[in-house]
Design goal:
- 63% of the residues lie in helices and 4% in strands.
- The protein is mainly α and 535 residues long.
- Among the domains are: 86 residues; 60 residues; 155 residues, no CATH class.
- α3 packs across α4, α9 runs antiparallel to α10 and α12 packs antiparallel against α13.
- The termini are far apart.
Length: 535
């Protein structure tokens, strides 16, 4: 049973609701919102009239003050007019005045009547149907904007933009979060949207400059995760898998600027992560230079990581393209692994630069070789030492060949500069040891830019061990090219170090390396002008 007190309480609430509704209808019927919006207009109009009166007054009393105030009022008026009409031409403009809605209604109303008139005129058969359809669509558009105001135009403009703005919105969102779990959830959400029907073509959406920024954010997240000592291994693996799927689904590119940050700047912690190396090997690169950078980074990872578990073996075998038995043999023989990686990256560097004709700086291979030449070559497998000497002779021949490409010669000299100490250690107290520089020679010494300062390896047992390697890489005018060992029998005439000569040769004469009639490299021992090599 409802008590009298409850009845009066309900009755008072109903009365208050009815009274509020009564006044709310009065607000709407008497257009109070329009009157409120008109108040700033009246204030601005009053201020404008005040300044007009001030200018007129000064014109009759003080010409100097009149000129100053007139210029100032003119500038302010111009800026006010610009702010008034700017939303008409820039729908995303944050600037407007109380007169902007009035200007908008006048603008859209005029264009609505104009295009509707053209639609009526072109309705006759003497005009093309496409022209009538065009005028009709424009008339309907401006009629819709006239009824719904500037907000409707801004909404239509925003929804009609390309997906590039969505990537920018995601980047803005990413910049507001800093917790690892939140970032992981953020990338999981993007991955889910890419796999859904919301994003029709995620690869097109991310193939922009903003897509590169998203790649940079992704790699930065991986760096923070893999470099952390507090994140469990299971979480690290899960996040790397999310990043891998993100790169695959959205076709994100890992460009050279990201690799620069890894090799030289603040993301160096990734060089100690096997997971990041496996991540790089799963990526398909559209840019050959980025693919080469990836090889450099992966080589450094294989060389520097000390915890050699199953994942490390997977990465190392894929990088060196060897079996597990050979890899374990490298590990059982001192620094053989580092020597094998050094040889592999040198050959890949020469091959990549020659194949693509790159004329770029060689920072990537310089950083890589500095990291990979910190070993004692005397404690390595003999066959790897032979292959190192073969590589050295090929590089010396490429550097001395004056008829070759200048950039290939510069690159050969740059590699020789970085591996020279390894060569000196291996050939200490032999006739093949360098005579024009030593281990104490600094990297900036001009002597290192002279091709003639680098001797050829003429050690007999090195040469015998090299005979089966010569057919692998042939120095030509364009660089190093692969050659099939099954189709030719290599012949090697090895010149002695300066001041000596091999049997049947004369110092200073060309050295000919022949594998078949189509591949001949001529090495001239004459000095050439020093070339600056950046390292």
């Amino acid at each position: 049973m409802v008590t009298r007190k409850q009845y009066h309480r309900r009755n008072r609430a109903q009365n208050r609701a009815r009274i509020r509704a009564f006044f709310a209808e009065g607000v709407n019927k008497l257009h109070l919102p329009l009157a409120v919006r008109a108040l700033p207009t009246l204030l601005h109009s009053a201020l404008f009239l005040f300044f007009v009166g001030l200018v007129i007054c000064l014109y009759h009393s003080n010409l100097i003050a009149f000129k100053f105030v007139a210029v100032w009022v003119g500038i302010c008026t111009f800026l006010y007019v610009c702010a008034t009409f700017l939303p008409i031409f820039r729908h995303d403009s944050p600037y407007n005045t109380p007169l902007s809605p009035l200007a908008w209604f006048l603008y859209t109303g005029f264009l609505c009547l104009f295009f509707q008139s053209l639609q009526w005129i072109t309705a006759f058969n003497c005009f093309r149907h496409e022209l009538w359809v065009r005028f009709r669509s424009l008339g309907d558009l401006y009629h819709d904007w006239f009824l719904h105001g500037m907000e409707k135009a801004a909404e239509d403009s925003a929804l009609g933009l390309s997906s590039d703005i969505d990537i920018r919105a995601l980047l803005w969102t990413f910049e507001t979060i800093d917790e690892g779990d939140e970032i992981e959830e953020f990338f999981e959400g993007i991955l889910g949207s890419c796999n859904s029907a919301v994003v029709s073509d995620p690869q097109v959406a991310f193939k922009t400059q903003n897509g590169e920024k998203m790649s940079e954010a992704l790699v930065g997240f991986m760096c923070d995760t893999l470099s952390s000592n507090t994140v469990p291994e299971s979480v690290k693996r899960r996040r790397v898998e999310i990043c891998s799927k993100m790169v695959e689904v959205a076709s994100l590119s890992i460009n050279r600027w990201i690799f620069d940050r890894i090799l030289y700047k603040d993301w160096g912690g990734l060089l100690n992560s096997v997971d990041f190396g496996l991540f790089l090997r799963r990526i398909t690169y559209g840019d050959a230079f980025s693919a080469y950078y990836s090889q450099c980074v992966t080589s450094v990872i294989v060389a520097t990581v000390q915890e050699r578990d199953g994942r490390w073996f997977e990465l190392a075998m894929g990088q060196l393209d060897v079996s597990e038995a050979i890899l374990r043999e490298y590990l059982d023989h001192g620094d053989s692994l580092l020597l094998a990686i050094c040889i592999a990256i040198c050959r890949r560097t020469m091959g990549a630069y020659s194949e693509h004709g790159w004329n770029r700086d060689v920072y990537s291979q310089s950083k890589t070789l500095k990291s990979l030449t910190k070993f004692d070559i005397r404690h390595t497998l003999p066959e790897l030492q032979y292959e190192f000497c073969s590589l050295w002779n090929e590089l010396v021949g490429s550097a001395r060949y004056t008829g070759g490409d200048r950039h290939t010669r510069s690159l050969s000299i740059n590699i020789l500069m970085h591996i020279r100490k390894t060569y000196i250690t291996l050939h200490e107290s032999t006739s093949a040891a360098p005579t024009q520089f030593s281990v104490l020679t600094t990297d900036i010494d001009p002597i290192l830019t002279l091709p003639s300062s680098y001797p050829l390896c003429n050690i007999p047992f090195h040469s015998s061990g090299l005979s089966h390697q010569v057919d692998k890489v042939t120095i030509t005018a364009t660089g190093m090219k692969a050659h099939n060992s099954e189709t030719s029998t290599p012949t090697l005439l090895v010149n002695d170090v300066p001041g000596t000569c091999a049997s049947g040769s004369v110092p200073g004469t060309p050295l000919v390396l022949t594998t078949n009639p189509g591949h001949i490299g001529i090495y001239v021992a004459d000095d050439s002008s020093p070339e600056h090599v950046r390292s």
